[in-house]
Amino acid sequence: MKAVKWVMGLISRFSKTHAEPPELRPPSSMWWWILPAALLIGAAAWATSVWLLQDVDRLPIDKQISARIEAARTALAAAAGVGAAVTLMLAVRRQRHQELATAHTTHDAAERRTTELYTKAADQLGSDQAPVRLAGLYALERLGEHTPALRQRVVDVICAYLRMPFAPPPDGSGRVEPAVPRAAVGGVSAPASRDPQEERQVRLAAQRILADHLRHEEPPVRHWWQPRAVLDTRHWSGIRLDLTGATLMDFDLRHCRVGEASFVGATFTGDARFVKATIIGDAEFDQATFTRSAEFGGVTFTGDARFGRVTFTSAADFIGAIFTRHAEFGGVTFTGDAVFSGATFSGDAEFDEVIFSGYAGFGGAAFAGEARFRRVNFTGNARFAGATFTRDARFAGATFSGYAWFGRTIFTRYVGFDGATGLERAELDGARAAPAPDVHREWPPCWRAMDGTDGWQTLRLAVPGAEGGAGLSGEAGS
User: Fold this and answer.
1) Would 321 disulfide with which of 54, 81, 183, 343, CB 3.0-4.6 Å?
2) CA–CA dist 11, 120 (Å, integer)
3) What are phi and psi of 94, to 5 degrees?
4) Please, what's the b/e burial string for 97-112 (b: 16 or more CB within 10 A of its CB; e: otherwise)?
5) What is the pTM of this model?
6) Which residue has the higher pLDDT, 284 or 111?
7) pLDDT tens, position by position, 138-165
8) Please, is 259 exposed, middle or buried when counting C-beta atoms within 10 Å of its C-beta (0-12, 13-18, 19+)?
9) Three-state DSSP state, 301
10) Which DSSP string do the residues of 156-171 spell out, in sequence order?
């Protein structure tokens, strides 16, 4: 069974994930303790006798005998005390050894139990019965809940299961045909093929397990007179997701926090929801396919966000998304509306050769890095009203087939619209360019940048048929 093979390959590493107890050394020979202890007891008795008898000769004769007897008693008492101390040390050492032996026995038992549970879960995941596969998933979840050191391994196994080939059943298929047994081999009947509807439920359960433990809720604000807030114990922190090439159905990671995520070549059937999720490491979606709506509103990408050549069949919502580093959308196809309104691009934003078949909304977006929209095809309306370009804005070769709104847009550095078409009817009310005398800007032929008294340039449409801005009052800028 495929499931058994890739799970068993991980089991050999699981035994090393627990915290190892202190090393259990074999007890040393008792002769190493008896001889020094005897010498120490004798030395204590002799030293005590010498100290007590050093002035006994000065005493009267009748008192010397009693003094010597008392000194002998004291010396014996000192020797007994030293002997008792040595005995106590030996007892402590013996107790410590017993504790270490018990700890190792407990640790070995826990390791064996963990291995047994993983082996059983592997067998269950390879079963042809959906309830048995579900039991395997929930067994893995329990292990992750009780053993934090194994959580990443548990997630790796679940992701590996989701990466296995699967063709989702069509929605609304009505009657489901029963599973048909395969031909017998060697006189033994092979198990029936997996029912698509049952496998769908197993995969949905696997996705829910991931989402339940990646969902992160910030603790409520606590005042000094209120009891301490309960920590979110269900959240597994720092988890990496590898769902490369997986088929995901109605995938839901809303409000989840993930370490790194790879969805390269994945197929999202049904709605995909990443609303207000946080991906701390790199997020890779290259060549993924979203068959229905993709919801990324309010998502935070702390690392690079790569969406190269992704296909969005329906609407794509990135409203308020935060891209902390490089955002790559090169070669993406947006069949439905694509909305990036209010998004923040702290690094470079690359949209080269993107096809926007529907509405493209970047209203109020902030581009702190370089913004590249070269050779983009805006088939529908495009809205950049209120957007801010802090660095270079490159629209070379872009095609605007619908209306284009650039009202209140702010350009700070280089602007390149060389070869761009379809901007004769662009809305430019309030669009401005910051003073940059050392920068050459390539405006569309139908636009004019008028110098203002404050050094800023105001963008205007040229009068139809006018050459070089002759139909405008004032001098045209760069």
Assistant:
1) 343
2) 11
3) -65, -40
4) eeeeeeeeeeeeeebe
5) 0.75
6) 284
7) 999 999 998 898 999 999 999 999 999 9
8) buried
9) strand
10) HHHHHHHHS---PPPT
Compare 251 and 27 and report the one with higher pLDDT: 251
**What DSSP state is assigned to residue 270?**
S
Distance CA 266, CA 264 (A): 5
**Residue type at position 249:** M
- What's the pLDDT band for 182 if we cut at 50, 70, 90? very low
Give the Cβ contact number of residue 306 at 10 Å.
Answer: 24
Please give the full DSSP string across 390-437, using - where no structure is assigned.
SS-EE-TT-EE-S-EE-TT-EE-S-EE-TT-BS-TT-B-TT-EE---T
**Cβ neighbours for 309, distance < 8 A, ≥ 6 positions apart:** 286, 287, 330, 331, 332
Single-letter amino acid code for the residue at 402: G
Give residue-wise pLDDT tens across range 346-398.
Answer: 999 999 999 999 999 999 999 999 999 999 999 999 999 999 999 999 999 99
Say if residue 451 is exposed, middle or buried (CB neighbours under 10 Å; 0-12, 13-18, 19+): middle
Pairing of strands 278-279, 260-262: unpaired
Torsion angle, alpha carbons of 297, 300, 301, 302, to 10: 170
Distance CA(164)–CA(241), nearest Å, equals 15
* Structural tokens at position 381: 């309306």
Secondary structure class of 215 (helix, strand, coil)? strand
If 0-12 CB within 10 Å is exposed, 13-18 middle and 19+ buried, where does residue 161 land?
A: buried
Residue 430 carries which side chain, given as an amino acid letter? G
**Could you identify the residue written with the tokens 């769908």?**
200
64 or 455: which carries more pLDDT confidence? 455
Domain boundaries in the chain?
2-20+27-125, 235-461
The residue among 435, 448, 383, 440 whose CA lies nearest residue 416 is: 440
Structure token digits, residue 437: 């005398």
Instruction: Please tell me the predicted confidence (pLDDT) of residue 117.
Output: 76
In angstroms, rounded to a whole number, what is the distance separating the alpha carbons of residues 245 and 131?
A: 25
